[in-house]
C-alpha cells in the first residue's frame, strides 16, 4: 500500500510580511498531482492544517477545495488536528465526510478507532492521534501523569490493544503530532513544553509498521518506521537549509517499509547573509541571492544609515534585518530574537528572574514558574478550542 505523508500546512500563515496563500495553493496543486500520478492509496496529513484556531476565510476555502479534489480522485485522506488547529472546528462534519473518503481524526478518545484500508495483501489499520494537550486529555485517556510522554503512551496502549484484537497480519500506521526525541526543531514551531519536558521517546510507538509524524518543520527520519514529513513551505529563516518535501511510503505485505522524498514547489529561495553593509552590497558571491527572500545580519561596529533601503536596492525581496556588531563585549549589540534563540519558555522566565534580582531561581521557584507556564498553556488550549 502506498501512502503520501505530509503535515504542517499552516494554511493562512504568512512569511514575515509576505502572504503565502498562493504558495500554499501551489503546494496543494502539487499534492493532488502527486497523489494521482504516483497512484497513491491514501494521503496522511499529520496535523497543523491551519495556522490558528480561527483561520481566515481564504485559508478555509483553500482547505475545502483540496478536500474536494482528493475525494474526486477517490484517494482516502486521513487527517489529524495539530497544536495550531482547533480540534473541534477541524472535526466539524467528520462523520459526513467519511463516506467520501475524508477521515478527520480530532477526538483523543477515538484514537483507537482506525480507518481500515485494504489492498491485495489484507487490511491496514490507520490510527489518527490528534495533538494531545496533557492537561486536557489526561483523565480521558487514563494517563498516569500529565505530561506528553504519559498521554501519548496511554493513547498508544489503546492503539496496540485494538490492533491485537484484529486478524493476524493486519498492518498498522499511526499519525501523531508531537515532538519526538531525536527530532531537530526550528524557530517556526510553537513551544509545547509541559512540566519542563516537550519530547517523547520514539519507542512510544513500538509495534507499529509506520508512524507519520507532524509538528517539526524539517523532514527527518528518526528510525526506518518513524518519520517527520516536515512543512511543505518554509515559515522562518531557520529553515533556509531545509529541502521541503513529502514522503512517498510503500508498506509491503509483511510490514516492510520503503520511503522516497518528493520535493515540494519552492516559491522563492531563502538566504541568510551576514557581514558589514558595504561588503554585502559589493560581494559578487552574493549575486545568487538577489532573487531570494533575504535575512541580513549586519556586523558593522556602528549602525549604518538607512541599511534596509540600501540593501533593498540589491536584494529587492529582503524581509529581515538584524544587527550584531563585531567586537561587542556585552549583549547590547545582540538582537533580542538572537538572545532568545533556542531557549524554552522556562529558560527565558528563569533568565528574567536572574536579570531582575541578580540571582537565579531556586528549585521551589523553578517549580512555581513551571506550574505558571503550564497553566498558561492550558488556558491557551482552552481558548483555542473556544475560538478566542
From TrEMBL:
Occurrences of domain Nuclease SbcCD subunit D C-terminal (ranges): 267-355
Keywords attached to this entry: DNA recombination, DNA replication, Endonuclease, Exonuclease, Hydrolase, Nuclease
Ranges for domain Calcineurin-like phosphoesterase: 1-218
A single BP term in Gene Ontology: DNA replication
Gene Ontology MF annotations: 3'-5' exonuclease activity; endonuclease activity
UniProt-listed CDD domains: MPP_Mre11_N (cd00840)
Function: SbcCD cleaves DNA hairpin structures. These structures can inhibit DNA replication and are intermediates in certain DNA recombination reactions. The complex acts as a 3'->5' double strand exonuclease that can open hairpins. It also has a 5' single-strand endonuclease activity.
Subunit record text: Heterodimer of SbcC and SbcD.
Family indicated by similarity: Belongs to the SbcD family.
Protein name from the UniProt record: Nuclease SbcCD subunit D
Species per Swiss-Prot/TrEMBL record: Streptantibioticus cattleyicolor (strain ATCC 35852 / DSM 46488 / JCM 4925 / NBRC 14057 / NRRL 8057) (Streptomyces cattleya)
Amino acid at each position: 500500500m502506498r501512502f503520501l505523508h505530509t503535515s504542517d500546512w499552516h494554511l493562512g500563515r504568512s512569511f514575515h510580511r509576505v502572504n503565502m496563500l498562493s504558495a500554499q495553493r501551489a503546494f496543494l496543486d502539487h499534492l493532488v498531482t502527486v497523489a494521482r500520478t504516483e497512484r497513491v492509496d491514501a494521503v496522511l496529513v499529520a496535523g497543523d492544517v491551519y495556522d490558528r484556531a480561527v483561520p481566515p476565510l481564504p485559508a478555509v476555502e483553500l482547505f475545502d477545495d483540496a478536500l474536494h479534489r482528493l475525494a474526486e480522485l477517490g484517494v482516502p485522506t486521513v487527517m489529524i488536528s495539530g497544536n495550531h488547529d482547533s480540534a473541534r472546528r477541524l472535526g466539524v462534519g467528520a462523520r459526513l465526510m467519511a463516506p467520501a473518503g475524508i477521515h478527520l481524526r480530532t477526538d483523543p478518545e477515538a484514537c483507537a478507532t482506525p480507518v481500515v484500508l485494504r489492498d491485495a495483501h489484507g487490511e491496514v489499520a490507520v490510527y489518527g492521534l490528534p495533538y494531545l494537550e496533557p492537561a486536557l486529555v489526561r483523565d480521558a485517556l487514563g494517563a498516569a501523569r500529565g505530561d506528553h510522554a504519559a498521554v501519548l503512551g496511554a493513547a498508544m496502549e489503546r492503539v496496540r490493544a485494538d490492533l491485537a484484537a484484529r486478524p493476524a497480519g493486519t498492518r498498522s500506521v499511526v499519525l501523531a503530532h508531537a515532538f519526538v526525541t531525536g527530532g531537530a526543531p526550528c524557530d517556526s514551531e510553537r513551544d509545547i513544553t509541559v512540566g519542563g519536558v516537550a519530547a517523547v521517546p520514539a519507542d512510544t510507538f513500538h509495534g507499529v509498521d509506520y508512524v507519520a509524524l507532524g509538528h517539526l518543520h524539517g523532514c527527518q527520519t528518526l528510525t526506518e518506521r518513524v518519520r517527520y514529513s516536515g512543512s511543505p513551505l518554509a515559515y522562518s529563516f531557520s529553515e533556509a537549509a531545509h529541502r521541503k518535501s513529502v514522503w512517498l511510503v510503500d508498506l509491503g505485505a509483511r510490514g516492510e517499509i520503503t520511503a522516497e522524498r518528493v520535493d515540494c514547489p519552492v516559491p522563492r529561495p531563502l538566504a541568510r547573509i551576514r557581514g558589514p553593509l558595504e561588503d554585502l552590497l559589493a560581494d559578487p558571491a552574493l549575486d545568487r541571492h538577489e532573487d531570494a527572500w533575504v535575512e541580513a545580519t549586519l556586523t558593522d561596529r556602528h549602525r549604518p544609515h538607512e541599511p534596509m533601503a540600501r540593501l533593498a536596492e540589491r536584494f529587492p525581496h529582503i524581509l529581515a534585518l538584524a544587527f550584531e556588531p563585531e567586537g561587542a563585549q556585552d549583549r547590547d549589540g545582540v538582537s533580542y530574537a538572537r538572545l532568545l534563540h533556542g531557549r524554552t519558555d522556562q529558560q527565558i522566565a528563569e533568565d528574567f528572574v536572574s536579570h531582575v534580582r541578580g540571582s537565579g531561581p531556586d528549585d521551589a521557584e523553578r517549580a512555581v514558574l513551571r506550574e505558571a507556564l503550564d497553566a498558561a498553556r492550558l488556558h491557551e488550549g482552552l481558548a483555542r478550542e473556544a475560538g478566542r
